[in-house]
């Protein structure tokens, strides 16, 4: 699989699996565009209220009514207003009973946990969802870089990329077709760095990542 295919595959895994999580939570329901004074009252009386709707609307590509609909689903499934990592891992494991989704769910959880406090707030959730569903290619690639940059130091190392690739292979399990070789994750990482690491310093910067993905894939933001 070439670098373009690998990146598209990785992004597809992120988006499709996260949407599956949303459906499992009962959050991703049809978004009502009808006016509802009940929704306004509900949002104003919730104890663990998120940031103001106007602020969230400015930070995302959702309308006010869509945010209200999303918040109702989030609050119904997460009354505390927070999703912890154990819950996240449990849901992913249900979708991949033949594999081990624990490590991948951990990495994905950290990508959504913007402030690193060990829980996903509604604000974290809706900002990430906006990028994955309605963001530009540039925004989605920046989000993917953040996923691969495990220690959040602004660089992707071979060790970090290998950890992500192994977690995806572990999650898919040994029942894939064609059967994947043991050294397949390492081969993908080597291809990744051959294309991405322009100055051959052993790490990939955000600029190298964005430029290569868009050039090799023929993508425009």
TrEMBL record:
What is the name listed in the Swiss-Prot or TrEMBL entry for this protein?
EF-hand domain-containing protein
Q: Does the keyword Repeat apply?
A: yes
- Please give the PROSITE patterns that the UniProt record associates with this protein: EF_HAND_1, EF_HAND_2
Q: Which domain of life is it from?
A: Eukaryota
A Pfam family (short name) is EF-hand_7
What are the UniProt keywords, alphabetically?
Answer: Calcium, Metal-binding, Repeat, Signal
All residue ranges annotated as the EF-hand domain in the record: 100-135, 136-171, 184-219
């Amino acid at each position: 699989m070439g670098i373009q295919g690998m990146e598209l595959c990785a992004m597809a895994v992120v988006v499709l699996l996260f949407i599956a999580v949303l459906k499992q939570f009962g959050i991703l329901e049809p978004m009502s565009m009808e006016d509802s004074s009940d929704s306004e009252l509900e949002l104003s009386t919730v104890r663990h209220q998120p940031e103001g709707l106007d602020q969230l609307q400015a930070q995302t590509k959702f309308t006010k009514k869509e945010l209200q609909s999303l918040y109702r689903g989030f609050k119904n499934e997460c009354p505390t207003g927070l999703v912890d990592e154990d819950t996240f891992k449990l849901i992913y494991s249900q979708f991949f009973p033949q594999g081990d989704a624990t490590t991948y769910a951990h990495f994905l959880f950290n990508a959504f946990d913007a402030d690193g406090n060990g829980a996903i707030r509604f604000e974290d959730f809706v900002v990430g969802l906006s990028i994955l569903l309605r963001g530009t290619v540039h925004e989605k690639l920046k989000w993917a870089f953040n996923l691969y940059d495990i220690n959040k130091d602004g660089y992707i190392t071979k060790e970090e990329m290998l950890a992500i690739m192994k977690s995806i292979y572990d999650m898919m399990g040994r029942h894939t077709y064609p059967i994947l070789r043991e050294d397949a994750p390492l081969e993908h990482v080597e291809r990744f760095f051959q294309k991405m690491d322009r100055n051959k310093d052993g790490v990939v910067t955000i600029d190298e990542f964005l430029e290569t993905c868009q050039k090799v894939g023929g993508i425009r933001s």
